[in-house]
């Protein structure tokens, strides 16, 4: 396998910086690949320069073939028809566009520096969705196009006339993935309502809703792209969860619609699944029949890694672990089944190019065609009589025909009374297109007789590199799967005497933990308290949490409910039990930090233990059970299902602030709930909402503050982030996929105001979260932006703030009025650096020099 | 819906007091019920939108599907409204396209204005001599597109969707040409 990452495949934002690629799809002839970007553009690239260094060096064919800039929102999906004639694109602007090759098109793109080598033109615009279009799929025979989006709808379009045929309602949340059954009998869609729905294509009725594997799946992913295996037998769906918060892709069987197989190993949500289009044979010398067929499926995940699985093996064939720094958003296999393309949020494309021998048992395309006949399903024929009433497209070959229109004088009032010079073209003639070249006329000549015909696929065979490179770049194992196996093995061995050799007697230390295979974890039903307004975690037979270097806390709930729940604290790979306890009521949530552990119970009680198992305080009785419980350093946070937020400093045995309800604040965001609640080492509580807003309770101000929100995404240019807690929140906001409300502004101040506002917010957030690195980064970016804009007032006020009172001297007594430090940095030291930035700006140079002078005298 | 293919200046450079003459060519992918409105705006002083002058505005329609073009002429700016300090040097000319009072495209050009002879360029007269001025538009437009609502948005589906009948050879698919391999480019 060869791994390539062509740096020049990119979409660019307004600052010419690399920006997210949301979608990728290879043309069926394998010679070009389309990408859709956050920059609202569709780009078409030649694959030869990607796959062959010679072609890349030679510049033939050109790397970038075409840029299509008609969409006004990020392009979330690009999909070629199976016959390769059209490209469909779906965008946040709620439109689906169909692109057609224009043999006379191409050339310099007006209004940009780009030159299109190949001309693709908008053939049709498909309005219908009332919100962002997220995924698209062509029927295996191009009979239909399916589109899904954030309006919770599924639209079916005719693949021939491009008329809209059906709207499938049923999903209760954003629909983020769609795929067709290769047989043509079914359509599958996957939604944030935590279901996959299967629809019958003969009457478009809903066949089945599958929800079990998705009950705990987070709604924060960009996509939930799913894929149907080429033998028709399985659907692999993304973003599923196993009990115990294990991110998986789930394999759903045709007709029974049961999901018994999990693909385990990714460290974050799976965004996309994509089957290799070829059928694979388990034993190559045996015939193509059901028990001898397997398939190959690729997964792309939020952890930035790609895994490729062959369904006959329990472990993946290949894992690309550090291929990307950010989530993978789309995958596409070439039609020859040998090349896998992946694109990422980080704006890059990676290509995995396999040798035929590496994909053992790959069968020719004809094997699939033959095999699918056994289903005995045929797609309904097109009605073939009568004229085409709805749409008459200009033929591709008539693109040089231009309708001459006449401009009429506008009926509006003129802004200026300067009418002494009349407009020449305003003589009020009716506007009529020149009849002879009317765009609705039939094509002048038959496109099939004149266009050169080169059949798709003719270029495919010579696309391999001559020199094979080793597979060694990626480990062919998945971590969690591995860990899980080790753990089970250790468990079944039981505690060996040697493991206890050097350990003093502890409570429960000699007691073997019962072996619980991950598959055996089951939910135990808990009555939802009547007052519950935030979701409660599902009660599970096994609940565990671990902290590196500290240990692991596990709660066991026997299926026989007459037996009490057990809590155990273990350390090391051997999971040696250090202490245990019994709980009066099952544990809903566990928390662990370097100082203590805690368990929140169904009856609203919270037990807090030291690491040696002593109760550090009596059982805390809360008004309601906890939806979230989290610990960090000395702090313990609990958010109850009634919305009360508690925060205690366990070491000091004090409450950090009076319990405070989040419900009044939540009422400002209709339809929103909490997705996560966490606490930082410095005792700052952060609550993430489904609306993409992160709130932090500021004890000093006694109010909730917004530390991250989607609003900035509408206009801020400050999207580069350092690693740290603030960027985690911002990444969460971005991943929530929530669009900024209130629209986009325009004019020259929009971007500046949004960027400065964003940076100011980030500075506050970094201070609240005590993140020195991010505070400094945001402060310097802020200074640079102020300098670029030449904003004297802001610059001066910032300098004042960082300098503090001029009478203050280092080493002076602590002044009540002024704090010389911020996030562990000396403010005046920061000021020196900020002034350095200001000095580079023409507008601020003088002011900066004055301040530098003053600062020199103050420190002298 | 509408994609601009090109905007050509029919007189550039020109005298400052000459009318502006343009030819706009654009693609339209679906028939439009109403006319497109185009406006030409002269921006003399970037900080003062109240001094912006709308030079002309015209309507074009009905617009058929396909490639369309039209010529458009706008009066030169009213010299009385331009602050004397802002006459020479760089100004901006903006062409906007709207549909049903919603702007869908804004195309901005820089205009450079100077005297037509070296002597006056070196030593500009105290009061401006407008008929000795020439203007030149930079041919690098800055294009901003906006998302607007075209005809009425999505229409309701028929209760019992009838499949569109299709005659062989006249469907959309049949008008597309085969796509040759990109390897040969």
UniProtKB/TrEMBL annotation, chain A:
Gene3D superfamilies documented for this protein: YVTN repeat-like/Quinoprotein amine dehydrogenase
Gene Ontology CC terms: chromatin; HIR complex; nucleus
Organism in which the protein naturally occurs: Exidia glandulosa HHB12029
WD repeat ranges per the UniProt record: 14-45, 68-102, 126-157, 168-209
Key words, A-Z: Chromatin regulator, Nucleus, Repeat, Repressor, Transcription, Transcription regulation, WD repeat
Domain CAF1B/HIR1 beta-propeller: 23-359
Entries under SMART domains matching the protein: WD40
Function: Required for replication-independent chromatin assembly and for the periodic repression of histone gene transcription during the cell cycle.
Name of the protein this chain belongs to: Protein HIR
UniProtKB/TrEMBL annotation, chain B:
Family in the record: Belongs to the ASF1 family.
SUPFAM superfamilies on file: ASF1-like
Organism, scientific name: Exidia glandulosa HHB12029
Keyword Transcription regulation part of the UniProt annotation: yes
Name of the protein: Anti-silencing function protein 1
Compartment(s) where it occurs, according to its Swiss-Prot or TrEMBL record: Nucleus
Protein's UniProt keywords contain Chaperone: yes
Listed PANTHER family: ANTI-SILENCING PROTEIN 1, HISTONE CHAPERONE ASF1
